Known about the structure:
disordered C terminus; 3 domains
Amino acid sequence: MAPLGALQKSFNVAQRDIADKDCARMFYASGLPFNLARSPYFRKYSQSLVNSSLIGYTPPSYDRLRTTLLSQEKAHVNRLLQPIRDSWNKKGVSLLSDGWSDRQRRPLINVMASSAGGAMFVKAIDSSGIVKDGEYVASLFIKAIKEVGEANVVQIVTDNTSNYKHARLSIENKYPHIFWTPCVVHSLNLALKSICTPPDKATQYDQCKWISDLVFQVQNIQTRFASNIIMAIRLREVKTSLEKMVMDANWKIYREDGNSVAEIKAREVKQCIVDDLWWDNIDYLISFTKPIIDILRQADTNSPVLHLVYDMWDTMIESVKKIIFNHEGIDIIVGQSTFFNVIHQILESRWNKSNTPLHCMAHSLVPKYYCHAWLQDGSNGIPRISPHEDREVSMNSRVYAEYGAFSSGSDYFNQPHVINARMFEEPLSWWANHGASAPLLQALAFKLFVQPASSSCCERNWSTYSLIQSVKRDRLATSRAEDLVFVHCNLRFLSRKSKEYKEGPTKYWDICGDLFDIEGHDIMELAQISLDDPEMQTMTFDGDNESQQVVVED
C-alpha cells in the first residue's frame, strides 16, 4: 500500500474513507433506505459525533432507544408543539379521525389535530375486543375534545360511516358549537365508486355499466393500484409502449397453453390495447371525471380549504356537465342527457349527505363570492348566485346583523378600497384588514378559513404505522407504536416548517424515499397529496377497507 501524502494526512482522507465505508455497511446490512442520508436528524447526529470531544462514546443501546430515550423525545416533541396548541384558542382546531387494522389485526382509531399551525398527531386508540358503535366512538371523541379544549374545537372530520354518524348526534348534542363534517375526499371517492362500479340493482347501473366493464378491463392490464381513474390515466400515458408490447413477436412468451387462463387474459388485454374505440372510452372516462379528480387533489391535503368546498362542488358539477354535453353534442342550455342525469344524481346525492352548515357558513364569508366579476363569470355563461341570495347558505347564517352589512356591502363595507379588495385579496387577509367593524364575523372567519376539509393526513399515518409495525417488529406494543408514530409524524410536520426543508442537502428529505428520483416532479404536491402515492392507492378508492367492514357506509 502506497504511503499517504502530506495533503491526504492533513484532511484525514483515509479515516474519512473508513468512516464512509462503515456508514455504508450499516445501511446495506440493516436494509436502511438511502433516503435516510438526507435526513436532517441523521446529519445532525453525524455532525455531533464529529464535533464532540466525548472520548469513548458509544451509540445508545437497544433498550435505551425503545424506553428512556423514546419517552424523553416524546416530551421534547410535545414542547415543540406547544406554540401550535397555543394558537388554537384564537384560530380554532379540527379533530380528524380514521380507522385501520395493524399487522396483528388490532383495530386502531387514529386522531389528529389540524389548525393554522399545521397538523399534529394526537393519539391512536387500540379498540381490540370492543364494539365500535356510535356510543363508543363518541366517548373517544369526547376525551379528545377535552384534551384539546372544547372551546377550541371547530369541527370533527371523519368518514361518513354509520357508527361515526351515530356518534355525531351525541357530540353535537353535548357540544352544539362543534360540527361533525364528513371528509370531502371520502365523499368524492364514494361518488366515483358509484360511477365506476355500480351495483347490479342500482338505478345508475344501465348508464354506467360501460364504465364498470372498462374498469374491469383496465384492472386486467394494470393490477398494481386500486384507484380506477388513476389506473386509466397511467395507461393512457403509456399507450404507445403498451401497443408496442402486445404487437412484439415476443408477446407470446407471456402466454401458456392454449386453454390456460393466462392465455385468455393475454388475448383480452391485446384486444383492448389495439382497439381504438376502447381508447376513446378511456379518454372519455378520464375527461368527465377530471373535475372530480381535480377536487380530490385539492382537498386531499392538510391545506385549509373548508371555505372553498361549496363552490368547488358546484363548479365541479357544472364542469362535468359541460364535458358530457359536448361529448354527446347536446346544447348545454336547453338539451337533456340521460347519462349526465345519472352522474348528476350520484354527485348531488353524495353532496347532500356530506354538506353541513359549516360549509355554507364558511362559503358565505368569502369576500370574492359577492363581487360582480365573480358572479358574472359563471360556468356555461350562467351567472352565479351570491351566498346571501342562496337559500341553502343564508338560512345557516347566525350573525344576521353583521352578515347583513357585509353581504350587502353597506356601512364600512361600502368603501371603494374595501370593495376592490374583495376579488383579489386572500379571504383571511381581507378579514384581517377590513373586518374590524364586524368583530363576530371576523373572529368566525379567522377560525373557518384555516380549517381542512378532509381527514387525509390520518390515512397517511397508517403508512407510517405499517413502517413502524413491520413484520420484524410485530410484537411491538401498541402504546410504544403510538409513541413512535407520535414522534415520527410530528417531527416530520415540524421539519417541513424549516427553511432547510426547501433548500440545501436535506431538501424535501421525507418525500418519496428511494422509490424514484424527486427531480422533475412537483415536490410539494408529492409531499402533500396521497392520491398518487403507491402505498396509498389501496386506501383512496376503497372506502370499505378492513377497519370499516363492521360498519355500513352511507
